[in-house]
């Protein structure tokens, strides 16, 4: 009996020792993790390392900024605001009444001069200002499932108030589709109408995966209040690229959307006659409408901000590196000098 008790007590002591050892290892690992004493790269920020890093950032960023700025400035743009000039003199004091009058002609002619040679393809955009497509209620007023599956999907409550009309569902439903931009443009060059390529202006992913190939417009713009353009009920939504472009809502109140492309070059000093049908109502909320013709570069459209930002950051980095260099030369500080420790300085002063 006594021997059994002794053996059991020795086993219990061994288990306790092992348990304490496991806890000790766990606590040690936790201590290393919380104190960040695990193996890691810990660069020492010496003055020479910091000065060199800032200088290299400047040397790299400035050439990139200059290249981006040069690419942006190589883009040729023609921007023409036409919303005010396309209102007849008799209606200048009441523009909203004119745009809502279905019997007033909306045709307008604009003359654009090419100041610099424009190489094809020339992209045509319409630009809207003070138009908040990012409004929460506006953005949510659509049905992704209905755009893909049509009348097979019955729940369109997210589209209210443009979900039904006369008891029948609307396809496509929602405020975004209802407010579709419907100004049109035709271009005449040397008495010949330019051909516009209006295919592939929308994202391929949108055409293939967000708008159904067998979904057709139904009961669209049949109500008493018409918001924007109509849709051909015989063309599936996946081929209605104007709608697809419009329904990719913009994040900012000033935005451009692609209308088409001109597939031929335009020489400098040539004149383009644009016949505009001014249908879209931006007058009720003080919006602006502009027509934009633009070429492109390897960086895309005209955008000076990216190049200027790179140049500004690179110049600032080089300036900071020179400031640090002068400070280091004037007041060098040896690394690891114990005389600079606070408590040492206090003791020497006493």
From TrEMBL:
The keyword Cell division does not apply. One of its GO terms (cellular component) is plasma membrane. It is found in: Membrane. Pfam families: CDC50 (PF03381). InterPro entries: CDC50/LEM3_fam. PANTHER family: ALA-INTERACTING SUBUNIT 2-RELATED (PTHR10926:SF29), CELL CYCLE CONTROL PROTEIN 50 (PTHR10926). The keyword Membrane applies. This is ALA-interacting subunit. Its main location: membrane. It comes from Aquilegia coerulea. It comes from the Eukaryota. The chain crosses the membrane at residues 49-69, 305-327. Belongs to the CDC50/LEM3 family. Keywords: Membrane, Transmembrane, Transmembrane helix.
